[in-house]
Specification:
Blueprint lengths: L6 E7 L16 H15 L4 E4 L11 H15 L8 E2 L4 H4 L19 E3 L8 E2 L5 E2 L1 H7 L4 E2 L9 E3 L2 E5 L2 E8 L4 H9 L3 E8 L5 E6 L15 E8 L24 E5 L5 E6 L6 E4 L17 E8 L2 E8 L6 E7 L4 H8 L6 H20 L21 E7 L8 H6 L12 E4 L8
Parallel strand pairs: 1-2, 2-4, 4-7, 8-11, 10-13, 13-14, 14-16, 19-20, 20-21
Antiparallel strand pairs: 1-17, 3-9, 5-6, 9-10, 11-12, 15-16, 17-18
Helix pairs in contact: 1-2
């Protein structure tokens, strides 16, 4: 992309869910190992910064173990003597608030090598805990200057989104962040023109300042937005699909058409490659989660993080398949497709439950074999956190049992103890093979 002096390199990731399954003797390290791989990749590739799209933590009030592990990882990879090659040219007090009124690398007592900018998600959103202030777990990390927390709104019925203006060489980025807001309330605010984006404008003296901009309002009195900024929106909301309710998700039409890139958090399925929006000229990347927190088909897709490089108005992406990921195999099975069971049913015979259990057990055994063939080789062998018993995979078999009795899933799962990471959750019975999306 030309001279490195003008290239801003950014690691993008989301939904780390630190602390997920921390009481599980097998899966307790999964979230930390995956997050550390992203951090280590960031340092190895000397990125300028990391953007984190929400749900760094799985719980609103992380346990002391989870918080300790998070701080250990951030100290190891965020602190250092590497130079910071970009600058923030906007008023930082309006972005980071009064408590942390400047980016962490400018703090006189901190030596930051990897600046991380994060919004909150629906799992780690601010809440009141015995006081008047609503605080998030990210506020604690922000107070330690290990993370730059932004995108929190004081009023969800009157939302003002101001960008962090970043400059490196001739490249300038306007980084917008919106921490999770309940989708119904955010929809209402958007419909009532209560969501305002501020755009950088340039006066005759070439000073950069912010002015409000809303595609739905008369903006003839505004100065022309500065065309030299690459606009990025980091958000954490349900993404509208054909099945999603209109008021329980965010539609692309709501996003300003002048945006260049949307980094979509909250959705766990990895769709990290750029997708062109049907509503505007912007591109969308959906990194997906770095750890499986449900046994849905979307979580079984290969998980990735990515580094994007921006120069002026051009952007390219390099993806990194995650290797600190527990193998997850998801499949569906229709009992009626088994010839022996179908023939017995058609003859009107009473079908013994043990016959059904044997059929399902054979299917699960084949999935276990498939999982063993798909175990990832760790990219780094010197991580602080490693997967425990990585040979134990996650398996989910969705069984359509129409026309057949339902068997005891726990009894079948018991036969896979010490063979799987989730023996008690292997089978999901349904009367339809249609898989519901998150």
């Amino acid at each position: 992309m030309g001279s490195e002096e003008d290239i801003i390199s950014i690691m993008i990731t989301t939904d780390s869910h630190l602390g997920y399954c921390e009481r599980d003797p097998v899966r307790m390290n999964d979230s930390f190992a995956a997050f550390e791989e992203v951090l280590k990749l960031s340092r190895e590739n000397r990125v300028d910064m990391m953007l984190l799209g929400g749900d760094l933590f799985h719980d609103n009030k992380p346990s002391r173990r989870t918080m300790r592990n998070a701080v250990q990882l951030l100290e190891k990879y965020v602190l250092g003597d590497d130079p910071i090659n970009f600058e923030i040219i906007s008023d930082q007090k309006k972005i980071f608030g009064q408590d942390c009124n400047q980016v962490n690398y400018l703090h006189p007592h901190m030596s930051i090598a990897l600046p991380i900018f994060s919004i909150h998600g629906n799992h780690d959103d601010p809440s009141r805990d015995g006081g008047p202030e609503a605080l998030a777990a990210l506020d604690l990390l922000s107070a330690t200057r290990l993370i730059n927390y932004f995108g929190c709104q004081d009023k969800v019925d009157d939302i003002h989104i101001k960008p962090i203006l970043i400059k490196k060489g001739q490249t300038r980025i306007a980084l917008y962040g919106l921490g999770n807001v309940r989708d119904e309330r955010l929809n209402r605010s958007w419909d009532q023109n209560k969501v305002t984006f501020y755009r950088p404008a340039q006066d005759e003296a070439s000073d950069i300042h912010l002015e409000n901009h809303d595609d739905n309002l008369d903006t003839h009195h505004l100065k022309e937005p500065c065309a030299r900024f690459f606009n990025i929106l980091l958000l954490h909301q349900n993404r509208a699909t054909m099945r999603a309710g209109v008021k329980t998700s965010i539609e692309e039409r709501m996003i300003p058409k002048w945006m260049d890139l949307v980094i979509w958090g909250h959705e766990h399925e990895c769709r990290i490659d750029f997708e062109r929006s049907s509503q505007g000229r912007f591109a969308i990347t959906q990194p997906g989660s770095t750890v499986a927190t449900s046994l849905s088909p979307g979580e079984a897709i290969q998980k990735n993080c990515a580094i994007i490089q921006i120069k002026l108005d051009r952007i390219k992406m390099q993806t990194f398949p995650m290797t600190m990921i527990r193998t997850f195999i998801h499949d569906e099975f229709i009992l009626a497709n088994d010839e022996d069971l179908a023939e017995s049913r058609d003859r009107g015979e009473i079908i013994d439950e043990t016959n059904i259990v044997q059929v399902l057990q054979n299917k699960v055994e084949s999935m276990v074999t498939q999982a063993k063939d798909n175990i990832s080789i760790p990219r780094f062998s010197d991580q602080l956190f490693q997967l425990l018993q990585p040979e134990l995979a996650l398996i989910r078999l969705r069984v359509d049992h129409r026309g057949f009795p339902k068997v005891n899933a726990k009894n079948l799962g018991a036969s896979f103890v010490q063979k799987l990471a989730n023996p008690e959750q292997v089978l999901l019975f349904s009367r339809s093979s249609t898989t519901k999306k998150k």
